[in-house]
C-alpha cells in the first residue's frame, strides 16, 4: 500500500518541480491549483488505504485520526503522522474548520486540557497549539519534499491568526481582532498578504475611533504593495471621517488615476511554495472588505466631494465625465453590487444637473434632465394608487415600518419603484423649470413646473381607516416626504415666474397652495406676503406678517434644514432642494 501512494506522491512532486521552474506567472498559478487538488486527492487516498487497518468503516475524518493515533504506536509513525497532520491542517484551514484543527493538534500533542493563549482579548487555543507544535524534520534536501512541514506549520499559524482576526473584526470584537491581526502581521507570509493584514488593521483601528493610527496602517499597506488600491480607497474614507477634504480629494484623484490606467503586467515568477497564506485565507467576507472600487464609483465620489467643497467647476466636469461613462462606457464600469458608492443612475443625472445649474450652465442642465425624462417616461404609470391603511402610523419616522397585525402589506416593491420613477421625472422637470427661469424664459419655465406638478398628481396616497395621511405616509412611505417637497418647490417656482409675467393673481394662488403643502415654509410665506402687498391687500399682508412673527418666535432655532428628513435612498432625488438651495447632501461611501 505504501509503495502505491508513495509512487503517486513522487510523480506529483516531479510534475510540480517542472511546472514551477518553466511556467509563466499565470501558468504557475494554475499549476499550483491543479497540484493542490491532486495532493488533496492523494491525502484522502492515504487516509482510506493506510489508516491503521480501519478502512471501509464509516468514520469521519476526525474519528479516523483519533482511532489511528490511539491504535498505532506513536514512536513508530510519529514523523509521518505529524507530516500528514500538517497537510490535514492545510485542508481544514482552507475550509475554515478551525475547531477540527484544534482537536487534531490536541491529539498530536497529547494535550487533554484546553490550552489558553496569552493573547489578550480572549482564548486562542489554536495559535498556542500551533506555536508549540514540534513538527519532526522531514529532510528538506530530499527530492520528494516539495515544501518543508515546518514552513507549512508557520504558514498555518499566520493564516489562522489572520482568519481569526478577521472573524473577530467582522463580529465587532475589536480588541480581540486588533490583537490577532497584530500577531498575524509578525507571521510568515508574502508582502501582498501582509498588506491585506494592514488594511484589516486600518479598518479595525478606524472603527475603534483611532483614525490617525488607521492611516498609518494603510500607508504601511501601500508601501508593501503599491498595487493595493483598497488601502488608498480606505484612506480616502478616513480622510472623509476626519473632515480633511483636500486630502480626501487628493486620495480619490490618485485612486481614479490608478484605476483608469492599464493594469501592470503580472510578474513572470511566482512563489515556489505550493502552500501559501493567500490560498488558505479567502472567505467571501474578506473579498468584500478588500474590494477595489470601480472607476465610476471613484469619479462619482470626486464629483460629489468637489460639489460639497464649493469647487463647483471641478464637480461639473467630473459629473459630465461620469455621465459619459454611464451612457457609453462598458457595462463593467457600472457596479451592480449593494456596497457600491454609486446611487441609482437617474439620481446621478440629477446631481449632475444640480452642479451644472450652480455653474449657470442652464442649457446643459436642461439637456441632462431631458435624459432623465426620456429614460423614465416608459416606466412612469398613468396613475399610481398606494394604500397606506395597512401600516402602523405609530411607526412614523421609522426606516423600517411594519404593517399592522392581521393586515397585509399593500406597498409592493413594484409600486415603490414606480413611485421613484415618478419622483425622478418630476425632479427633472423641476430642474428644467429652474433652468428656463435662469434663461429668463418664464413661459417655458412655467410649462416645466406644471409638468412637474402634473406628474405628482399621478400619485394617490390613500388611507381607509381615518388616520391622518401625513402621519401614515411618514411611517409607511418615506418617499412621500420627497413628493411633498418637490410639489412645494414647483409651486413656489411657478409662482415667481407668474410674477415675472405680471400675473399676480396666478402667483398668489400658487403661493397659497405652497403654504398648504408646507405651512411652515418661510420662502413660500415670504413670497405670499410680498404678493399680497403688491395686490394692495394690506390687511391680509399685515395679518400674515404678525403670524410669521409669532411663529418665528416660537420656533426660533428649530427651522428644518431642507433635506434633513429625507430617506437616505431618496435624498439625491431632490437635488434642487438638497443641493441647489442648501448645498449637496452628505452621503457615505456606500449606498444605504
Automatic annotation (TrEMBL):
Residues spanning the signal sequence: none
Record SUPFAM superfamilies: TPR-like
Gene Ontology CC terms: Fanconi anaemia nuclear complex
GO biological process: interstrand cross-link repair
Keywords tagged on the record: TPR repeat
Superkingdom of origin organism: Eukaryota
Each TPR repeat, start to end: 488-521
Keyword Transmembrane helix assigned: no
Record's protein name: FA complementation group G
Organism: Crocodylus porosus (Saltwater crocodile)
Amino acid at each position: 500500500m505504501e509503495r502505491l501512494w508513495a509512487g503517486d506522491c513522487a510523480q506529483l512532486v516531479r510534475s510540480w518541480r517542472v511546472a514551477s521552474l518553466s511556467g509563466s506567472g499565470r501558468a504557475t498559478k494554475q499549476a499550483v491549483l491543479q497540484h493542490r487538488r491532486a495532493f488533496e486527492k492523494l491525502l484522502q487516498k492515504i487516509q482510506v488505504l493506510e489508516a491503521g487497518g480501519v478502512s471501509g468503516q464509516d468514520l469521519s475524518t476526525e474519528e479516523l485520526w483519533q482511532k489511528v493515533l490511539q491504535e498505532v504506536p506513536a514512536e513508530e509513525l510519529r514523523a509521518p503522522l505529524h507530516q500528514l497532520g500538517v497537510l490535514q491542517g492545510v485542508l481544514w484551514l482552507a475550509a475554515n474548520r478551525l475547531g477540527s484543527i484544534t482537536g487534531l493538534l490536541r491529539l498530536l500533542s497529547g494535550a487533554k486540557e484546553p490550552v489558553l493563549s496569552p493573547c489578550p482579548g480572549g482564548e486562542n487555543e489554536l495559535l498556542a497549539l500551533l506555536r508549540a507544535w514540534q513538527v519532526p524534520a522531514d529532510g528538506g534536501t530530499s527530492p520528494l519534499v516539495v515544501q518543508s512541514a515546518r514552513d507549512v506549520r508557520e504558514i498555518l499559524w499566520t493564516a489562522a491568526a489572520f482568519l481569526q482576526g478577521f472573524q473577530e473584526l467582522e463580529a465587532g470584537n475589536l480588541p480581540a481582532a486588533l490583537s490577532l491581526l497584530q500577531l498575524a502581521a509578525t507571521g510568515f507570509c508574502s508582502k501582498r498578504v501582509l498588506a491585506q493584514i494592514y488594511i484589516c488593521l486600518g479598518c479595525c483601528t478606524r472603527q475603534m475611533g483611532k483614525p490617525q493610527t488607521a492611516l498609518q496602517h494603510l500607508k504601511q499597506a501601500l508601501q508593501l504593495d503599491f498595487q493595493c488600491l483598497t488601502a488608498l480607497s480606505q484612506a480616502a474614507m478616513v480622510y472623509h471621517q476626519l473632515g480633511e477634504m483636500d486630502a480626501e480629494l487628493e486620495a480619490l484623484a490618485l485612486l481614479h488615476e490608478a484605476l483608469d490606467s492599464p493594469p501592470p503586467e503580472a510578474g513572470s515568477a511566482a512563489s515556489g511554495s505550493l502552500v501559501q497564506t493567500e490560498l488558505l485565507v479567502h472567505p467571501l467576507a474578506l473579498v468584500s472588505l478588500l474590494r477595489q472600487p470601480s472607476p465610476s464609483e471613484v469619479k462619482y465620489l470626486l464629483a460629489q466631494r468637489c460639489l460639497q467643497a464649493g469647487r463647483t467647476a471641478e464637480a461639473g466636469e467630473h459629473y459630465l465625465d461620469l455621465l459619459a461613462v454611464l451612457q457609453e462606457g462598458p457595462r463593467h464600469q457600472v457596479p451592480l453590487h449593494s456596497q457600491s458608492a454609486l446611487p441609482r443612475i437617474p439620481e446621478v443625472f440629477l446631481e449632475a444637473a444640480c452642479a451644472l445649474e450652480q455653474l449657470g450652465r442652464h442649457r446643459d442642465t436642461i439637456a441632462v434632465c431631458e435624459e432623465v425624462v426620456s429614460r423614465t417616461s416608459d416606466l412612469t404609470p398613468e396613475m399610481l394608487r398606494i394604500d397606506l391603511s395597512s401600516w402602523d402610523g405609530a411607526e412614523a419616522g421609522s426606516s423600517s415600518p411594519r404593517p399592522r397585525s392581521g393586515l397585509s402589506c399593500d406597498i409592493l416593491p413594484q409600486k415603490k419603484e414606480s413611485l421613484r420613477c415618478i419622483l425622478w421625472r418630476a425632479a427633472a422637470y423641476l430642474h428644467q423649470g429652474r433652468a428656463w427661469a435662469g434663461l429668463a424664459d418664464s413661459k417655458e419655465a412655467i410649462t416645466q413646473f406644471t409638468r412637474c406638478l402634473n406628474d405628482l398628481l399621478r400619485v394617490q396616497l390613500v388611507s381607509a381607516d381615518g388616520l391622518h395621511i401625513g402621519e401614515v405616509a411618514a411611517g409607511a412611505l418615506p418617499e412621500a416626504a420627497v413628493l411633498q417637497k418637490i410639489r412645494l418647490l414647483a409651486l413656489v417656482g411657478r409662482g415667481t415666474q407668474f410674477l415675472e409675467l405680471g400675473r399676480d393673481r396666478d402667483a398668489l394662488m400658487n403661493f397659497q397652495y405652497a403654504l398648504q403643502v408646507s405651512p411652515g415654509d418661510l420662502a413660500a410665506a415670504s413670497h405670499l406676503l410680498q404678493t399680497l402687498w403688491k395686490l394692495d391687500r394690506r390687511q391680509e399682508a399685515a395679518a400674515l406678517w404678525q403670524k410669521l412673527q409669532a411663529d418665528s418666535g416660537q420656533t426660533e432655532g428649530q427651522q428644518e434644514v431642507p433635506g434633513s428628513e429625507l430617506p437616505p435612498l431618496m435624498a439625491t432625488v431632490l437635488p434642487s432642494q438638497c443641493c441647489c438651495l442648501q448645498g449637496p447632501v452628505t452621503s457615505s461611501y456606500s449606498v444605504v
